[in-house]
Amino acid sequence: MNLSYEDIEHLFHEHRYEVTRSLYRMVRCEQTAADLTQETFMRLVNLAQTSSVMYPRALLFKTATNLAIDYLRKGKSEQHSGEALELALEVPSGAPSAERTILDKQRLQIFLNAINTLPQRSREAFLLHRVHDCSYREIATRLNISESAVEKLIMRALLYCRRALQEHDTD
Questions:
Q1: What is the C-alpha to C-alpha distance for residues 27 and 50, in angstroms, rounded to an integer?
Q2: Are 147 and 137 in contact (CB under 8 A)?
Q3: CA of residue 136 relative to chain centroid, distance
Q4: Is 0.70 topped by the overall pTM?
Q5: How far apart are CA 99 and CA 95, in angstroms?
Q6: Do 69 and 90 meet the contact criterion of CB atoms below 8 Å apart?
Q7: Closest residue by Cα to residue 22 from 61, 70, 57, 75
Q8: In what helix (H) or strand (E) does residue 97 lie, and over which residues does it extend?
Q9: Which residues have C-beta within 8 Å of that of residue 73, sequence separation ≥ 6?
Q10: Three-class DSSP category at 40
Q11: Which residues pair with 168 in a beta bridge?
């Protein structure tokens, strides 16, 4: 997805304190951390509408971390640069690992397969409720069944999907 200026502004306001605090732990200077936070925002604004971003929060923190590392490498920190640089490199990325991404994709595929193998009525009730946000009453009217039957269909579908995921997780 391309980030708009509004998306970046919202992201910045939502995570500014976290970013500044994380930067402070790296550079050990409040003013420098604040300056690097602003620089992070400016870098993201320059990316607006030009780059496709899958994980905006991860990009925010990775950009901030990279700026702190650049700052420390240039020797502008009053702290011992080598020690501070090591601390900065230890800051975890907000992006999921490659392994986590693969596992999540596998679990999503298993979930979709489970939904597709549900009996027709259960699948329809489940999708109407979870995807299309229909109430039990709306689903009952549409399927010409009672609300209690809708509830049972959805519960069975949820249990079936949960079992499919649990079987995958134990493999």
A1: 30
A2: yes
A3: 30
A4: no
A5: 11
A6: no
A7: 61
A8: none
A9: 81, 85
A10: helix
A11: none
- Whole-number Å distance between alpha carbons of 137 and 146: 8
75: left (phi over 0), alpha (psi -120 to 50) or beta: left
Residue with tokens 């080598």: 82
> What pLDDT digit, counting tens, does each position of 106-133 carry?
888 999 999 999 999 999 999 999 889 9
**Paired tokens of 127:** 């999708």
> For the packed helices 30-47 and 56-73, what is the interaxial angle rounded to 10 degrees?
130
Q: Which amino acid is at 158?
A: L
Residue whose token pair is 């970013």: 19
Dist. CA 93–CA 53, nearest whole Å = 15
* 94 DSSP assignment: S
**Which token pair is 119?**
């009996």
Placement of tokens 């790296």 in the chain: 26
Helix (H) or strand (E) segment spanning residue 52: none
For a pLDDT cut of 90, what percent of the chain falls above it? 39
Name the residue type at position 63: T
